[in-house]
Amino acid sequence: MSQRSLASPWARLGGANQEWTVRVVEPERDDQALIGASLAGDHAAFDAIVERHRRAICQVCFRFVNNHEDASDLAQETFVRAWKGLANFKGEAALSTWLYRIAVNVCLNRVGAKRLTVEPLESDRFIDPSAELPGTDLIRQERAQAVRRAIAVLPEKQRATLILRTYQEMSHQEIADVLGSSVGAVKANFFHALANLKKILGSEP
Amino acid sequence: MTHLTPDEIIDAVESTLASGRRAHLDACEQCRAETASVASMLREAHAVSAAEPSPLFWDHFSDRVRTAIAAESHPSSGARRWFEWPVLAPLGALALLVMALVASVPQSVGPFERAAGEPPGFATEPADGVDNEERWAMMFDLVGEVDFDSVLDSGLLGRPGTAERALMQLTSTEREELLRLLREELWSGG
Questions:
Q1: Cα separation of A35 and A96, whole Å?
Q2: CB pairs under 8 A between A and B
Q3: What integer pLDDT is reported at residue B64 of this predicted model?
Q4: Which of A151, A186, B98, B160 is most buried by a 10 A CB count?
Q5: A76 touches B at CB < 8 Å
């Protein structure tokens, strides 16, 4: 017979001759349950929210600023704002949508206020000496840098739409929820973002 | 027939264009060229990679968020902040100090004589003819516009817990001496 107190994650199983103590894995709580627990003062619940969404939020912040240091600061600010505003989260949209919305606002505010440095990525910094066509690789890396620079100068909504659609692979509806616009407007912004990228890159030397 | 709109071109790129408009795309060279151009730009943007942080980064990141949230503490309004212990404790200490100073200032000879048997330093009537309401009004005039952050920045308030820590560090002899000095200050005015 299983004997387990509510507070203990361990259970004792087995009959008269044999007994095992096993770790009972708690069922993973959904976002809504974690929000409720966080609001009730359970800090571990908010830690779980951070752990669940940190990768996606850091990725989107990185795409806005192109360097890990600033992206990490922005993602941290996103979660601090989320914690402070958790009581205002009504659950009408998914928690991830709400977090993306905060992250996009934080990124756009910060990028507008401060000129951020574009850090070369690992793949750009190190050239593989064994590569058959080092010249081709270099051209590809330079082009990637040019694309990042071009994305950085896009109008805010176009940039946010492009990042969320291309790199986070969100649906048009999800992006519309994050940006507070319609699906049609999201598609139009996406089109103009890509057209502007082409124009900017075409005018680069 | 009209050319594809921007959102229809996106639908075409993502292969979700309605069949009626697909017929136009097949027939219109201009729309096909535009769709191909947008699709190629999308492929190029998609190919721009982002370096993944090390696994250690994530633990460090969670720690940072935890620390930042702890530093924020529970969010509270500016007014409520005045009623929290880190504010009340130093303010209480300040109030005690003010009371001790007031008590230690020699009372000027005024129109009101202290009643026999009344403890010195606590005259029931003000010696200067200014009543308490006027004193409080003067205090509000002086500090009414000062906000919490200004007081904190000016250094008038110690860091939270400073007074408590200082008291805890006193030896029992020092605490007795402090008590004696406070009593002396409180009761020796006059």
A1: 12
A2: 91
A3: 94
A4: A186
A5: yes
Report how far residue A44's alpha carbon sits from residue A23's, in angstroms, rounded to the nearest whole number: 19
CATH number of A28-116: 1.10.1740.10
Instruction: Provide, as residue numbers in chain B, all residues whose Cβ is less than 8 Å from the Cβ of A54.
Output: 58, 61-62, 65
Taking the domains of chain A in order of start, what are their residue ranges? 28-116, 120-205
Return the SS3 of B111. coil
- Determine whether the interchain pair A198/B75 forms a contact, defined as Cβ–Cβ distance below 8 Å: no
pTM of the model: 0.61
Which residues have C-beta within 8 Å of that of residue A127, sequence separation ≥ 6?
Answer: A134, A137, A138
Burial of A73 (0-12, 13-18, 19+ CB in 10 A): middle
Helix (H, G, I), strand (E, B) or coil at B41: helix
d(CA B72, CA B94): 26
Angle (nearest 5°) at CA A145 between A139 and A147: 105
CATH topology (fold) of A120-205:
Arc Repressor Mutant, subunit A (1.10.10)
Of A58, A148, A184, the CB nearest to B7: A184
* Residue B182, C-beta contacts closer than 8 angstroms, at least 6 positions apart: B96, B100
Q: How many CB atoms lie within 10 A of CB B50?
A: 17
Residue type, A82: A
- Cβ atoms within 10 Å, residue A60: 25
On whether any CB of chain B is under 8 Å from the CB of A194, the answer is yes
Query: Over the stretch B63-111, which tens digit does the pLDDT of each residue have?
Result: 999 999 988 865 444 444 555 555 566 667 777 777 777 766 655 444 4
Cα dihedral B98, B102, B103, B109, rounded to 10, equals 180
